[in-house]
Amino acid sequence: MDSVLLFVLGVLIMVVGLALSIGLHEVGHLVPAKLFGVKVTQYMIGFGKTLFSFRKGETEYGVKAIPLGGYISMIGMFPPNKDGSKGRNASTGFFQTLVQDARSSSAETVGEGEEDRTFYRLPVWKRIIVMLGGPFMNLVIGIALFAVLLCGFGVAQTTTTIASVSTCVLPATSTRQTCGAGDPTSPGSAAGLKPGDRIVSIDGTTITTWDQSTAIIRASSGKALSVVVERNGAQKTLTLTPLKTQRYVLDAQGQVVKNAAGASETQDVGFVGIGPTQALVPQPATAVLPAVAQQTGAVVNLILNLPNRLVSVWNAAFSSAPRDPNGPISVVGVGVAAGEVTALSNVPVQAKAYTLIGILASLNIALFVFNLIPLLPLDGGHIAGALWEGLRRSLARLFRKRDPGPVDMAKLMPLTFAVVIVLGGMSLLLIYADIVKPVNLFG
Question: For a tag site, which of 17, 213, 285, 406 has the least CB within 10 Å?
Answer without folding.
Answer: 285
